[in-house]
Amino acid sequence: MKDELIRILCEKSFQYSEQPVFKLVSGRLSQFYVNCKPTTLSPRGMFLTGHLVYEAIRGMGAVGVGGLTFGADPIAVATAFVSELKAEPIQAFSIRKTQKDHGMIRWIEGDIRPGDRVVIIDDVVTTGGSTIKAIERAQEEGMQVIKVVVLVDRQEGGLENIRAHVPDISVIITRDDLMRAQKTIPS
User: Fold this and answer.
1) For residue range 75-117, what is the model confidence (pLDDT) as tens digits?
2) Residue 16 · residue 179 · CB < 8 Å
3) CB-based contacts of 104, cutoff 8 Å, min separation 6
4) Is this prediction's pTM over 0.90?
5) Alpha-carbon distance values, 13 to 7, 119, 164 (Å)
6) How far lies 6's CA from each of 19, 50, 78, 147, in Å?
7) Strands (DSSP E) along 18-116, which ranges?
């Protein structure tokens, strides 16, 4: 499954340039561009991602899986779906970037309660800033963050930053995995 997901990511979500031409959220330019959404929103990509993330968290007693909207949302939904198929249901949840200002004022959407054991997921990690924000929001809402799962690690120091908040981290695919696979895919 992992090899197939790497292939799909290379086709739909990953680009490389000899020169740093891709602008990151930080404003810095990079040689690598990773936008997982075309993959995680595709039927096969969603299927593979859900199974791989589920395998990384199964048996941990997690009540929920989610992260900062929008990158984590399709991964959380796919994982929750697979968890039900495997008879170990795990709720999907989504953490807002800005707090809702009407109705029930909340940061987190989903059937999650204070005290629940949750896994934070992210589609791509560079510095870890978005993942850390999700961890902090979940903790502020009373959740116990037991693990972080990253779909693609850009290998630029983000994991070390995240580990200062949650030591248990799983990475499904690395930038090196994508670079190796891209070299073998015919143009």
Assistant:
1) 999 999 999 999 999 999 999 987 656 556 678 999 999 999 9
2) yes
3) none
4) yes
5) 10, 24, 29
6) 23, 14, 17, 23
7) 22-23, 29-30, 32-34, 64-68, 91-95, 108-110
Q: Report the number of distinct structural domains present in the chain.
A: 1
pLDDT tens-digit series, residues 144-154: 999 999 999 99
- Which pair of structure tokens corresponds to residue 9? 């990511």
How many helices (H) and strands (E) the chain has is answered by: 7, 10
Say which CATH number the domain at 174 has: 3.40.50.2020
* Domain of residue 13, residue span: 2-184
Cβ atoms of 53 and 121 within 8 Å: the answer is yes
- The residue assigned the tokens 């930080």 is 26
